[in-house]
């Protein structure tokens, strides 16, 4: 399950991507080390007013619509609602869609949620066509992380799991790219696998994001979320459509 605090961070990273892209373009003509140009404090700083400047207003509030194509139990969408954003969610599993619907209904009946639930439905993120997708403000999701491991898997097993995850996530990014407006930000969590020595295996697609028509805004600063000794970590990719 995605921790709520991490969901909040991912929303902020996505909505601050415009500021990060500006920093990236400035760094291309600047001198200095990668760490000085892209330290973690810079990456984690948000720029929500910049993101809101381009949005239309409804009822005195900015219209910000977040899509989670792997909504699961709805953690990202709940945090987005509480922050005042409108939400759209899909998941391959109808069971997960039901969980999300129930959780969002409870949230709205228990707390003040300035955002609106636009649509929650079952869909395959690798083939689905989302209505009005060019009007989405950002895409925020935890993608398929594959099989959980309590100990580092054998190399053959790791290659199998990593290949499967890479195929699903690549298919998703390929499918959604033409449906999004230019410069749409995404923050997605993908798996990274750690062995006993602390070395990580990353999904191969990270090296080919430009070929998929995405800017990888935190390419020089990998963002890994994991507990000590955790085998399957979450790697956050901050992307922007070309």
In short:
The protein is α/β, with parallel strands linked by helices and 242 residues long.
Describe this entry's structure for a reader:
The protein is of the alpha/beta class and 242 residues long. It has a single domain (4-241), classed as Vaccinia Virus protein VP39 (Rossmann fold), CATH 3.40.50.150. The protein is 35% helix and 22% strand. It is built from 8 helices and 11 strands. The protein has helices at residues 4-15, 17-27, 34-37, 40-44, 48-52, 75-82, 94-110, 155-176; strands at 57-58, 61-62, 65-68, 86-91, 117-122, 138-142, 185-194, 200-202, 214-216, 223-225, 232-241. Strands 3, 4, 5, 6, 7, 8, 9, 10 and 11 form a 9-stranded mixed β-sheet that branches. A two-stranded antiparallel ribbon has the order 1-2. Helix 1 (4-15) crosses helix 6 (75-82). The radius of gyration is 18 Å and the shape is globular. Residues 29-55 have low confidence and may be disordered.
